[in-house]
């Protein structure tokens, strides 16, 4: 489908404590993650109705993403970001997700390190 609108629901600086990392010592602790999410969606119905049931609910997204990060216990940020983007596209009314996940305490000499990815919903197939 071709999307002409470019409305976005966003979340900035979502803080999650989770098991993350490739080294053995990292598997035994939790570390802070800072997550930014932009979900492209059509907000026009919610803008008219003023009803949260018509909106892509950012509180629900925050709760889900926190739970998924803690459950996945990924080694690489790349794996975690890919899994979360796929789940958001599957569960929510969004056709494009941009997600960045930072580890603010991983590298002493850096404010933060991390990854940013953009994923699109698969186009519906024409197979009957
Ligand atoms: N591109 C990546 N590089 C690294 C990652 C990662 O997830 N993606 N992870 C680590 C370690 O877990 C690191 O955070 C420990 O300081 C190293 N490089």
Automatic annotation (TrEMBL):
| Enzyme Commission designation | 4.1.2.25
Q: Where is the Dihydroneopterin aldolase/epimerase domain?
A: 9-119
**Which SUPFAM superfamilies did the record assign?**
Tetrahydrobiopterin biosynthesis enzymes-like (SSF55620)
What are the record keywords, sorted? Folate biosynthesis, Isomerase, Lyase
Share an example GO biological-process annotation for this protein. tetrahydrofolate biosynthetic process
- Pathway annotation: Cofactor biosynthesis; tetrahydrofolate biosynthesis; 2-amino-4-hydroxy-6-hydroxymethyl-7,8-dihydropteridine diphosphate from 7,8-dihydroneopterin triphosphate: step 3/4
Q: Which GO terms describe its cellular component?
A: cytoplasm
Which domain of life does this protein belong to?
Answer: Bacteria
Enzymatic reactions = 7,8-dihydroneopterin = 7,8-dihydromonapterin; 7,8-dihydroneopterin = 6-hydroxymethyl-7,8-dihydropterin + glycolaldehyde
What GO molecular function annotation could you give as one example from this UniProt entry?
isomerase activity
Q: Which Gene3D superfamilies does UniProt cross-reference here?
A: 3.30.1130.10
Q: Name one Pfam family in it.
A: FolB
Function noted in UniProt: Catalyzes the conversion of 7,8-dihydroneopterin to 6-hydroxymethyl-7,8-dihydropterin.
The record's listing under PANTHER family reads:
DIHYDRONEOPTERIN ALDOLASE 1-RELATED (PTHR42844)
The entry assigns this protein to a family as follows:
Belongs to the DHNA family.
Name of the molecule in the record: 7,8-dihydroneopterin aldolase
Q: Which organism is it from?
A: Psychrobacter aquaticus CMS 56
């Amino acid at each position: 489908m071709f999307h002409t609108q470019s409305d976005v629901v966003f979340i900035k600086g979502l803080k999650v404590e989770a098991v993350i990392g490739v080294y053995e010592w990292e598997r035994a602790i939790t570390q802070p993650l800072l997550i930014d999410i932009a979900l492209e969606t059509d907000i026009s119905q919610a803008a008219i109705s003023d009803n949260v049931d018509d909106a892509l609910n950012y509180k629900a997204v925050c709760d889900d993403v926190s739970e998924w990060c803690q459950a996945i216990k990924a080694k690489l940020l790349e794996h975690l970001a890919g899994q979360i983007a796929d789940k958001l596209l599957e569960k929510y009314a969004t056709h494009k997700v941009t997600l960045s996940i930072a580890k603010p305490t991983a590298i002493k000499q850096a404010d933060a390190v991390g990854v940013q990815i953009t994923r699109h919903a698969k186009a519906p197939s024409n197979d009957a």
